[in-house]
Design a protein that fits this description.
It comes from Alkalibacter saccharofermentans DSM 14828. It is built from four helices and five strands. It is of the alpha/beta class. The protein has one domain: Rossmann fold (3-Layer(aba) Sandwich), CATH 3.40.50. Helix 3 packs parallel to helix 4.
Length: 149
């Protein structure tokens, strides 16, 4: 097993996936790829056209802030691999989270995807069920998936 992909989002289940992925990578001497995907789906658009006055600057600010947050999350997560720091790569992508994970796994020939069963949106009753991203990934990716709960 040469490459282990661990998609992360900062959730509790993401941290559990990091720990399990680290354990597997140590055992096999695998390279770890920490992947963070930022969903850029803006589902609610303002109805007042005056808010679009300086929309380009606003969007650029939002994207820049998101890039910073993603970089911080990836660097903080990489610190959990202090004893194998040189074996960890970080990747930040923008797009549909599940599709981006699947595409990355397929295009980069990973051997295993270690994925938390739920992400940041899992609260209350939703937390007891399989998350929508995890569900989509396990049904669409052709690579082995270890789901951590």
């Amino acid at each position: 097993m040469k490459k282990v992909l661990i998609p992360i989002d900062g959730s509790e289940f993401s941290s559990l996936a990091i720990e399990k992925g680290k354990e597997i990578a140590k055992f096999f001497g695998s390279k770890i790829i920490l992947l963070h995907v930022r969903d850029l789906n803006f589902s609610n658009y303002p109805s007042d056209p005056s808010v679009f006055h300086d929309i380009t600057a606003t969007i650029e600010n939002i994207l820049a802030e998101g890039d910073k947050e993603s970089a911080i999350l990836l660097e903080e997560s990489k610190k959990k691999f202090e004893d194998m720091f040189d074996m960890v790569e970080t990747v930040s992508l923008k797009g549909n989270v599940a599709s981006s994970i699947v595409d990355y796994a397929e295009e980069n020939d990973v051997d295993l995807v270690v994925l938390g069963s739920n992400g940041l949106g899992a609260k209350g009753i939703r937390g007891a069920l399989l998350g929508s991203v995890a569900n989509k990934v396990i049904h669409q990716v052709t690579k082995p998936v270890l789901l951590v709960k």
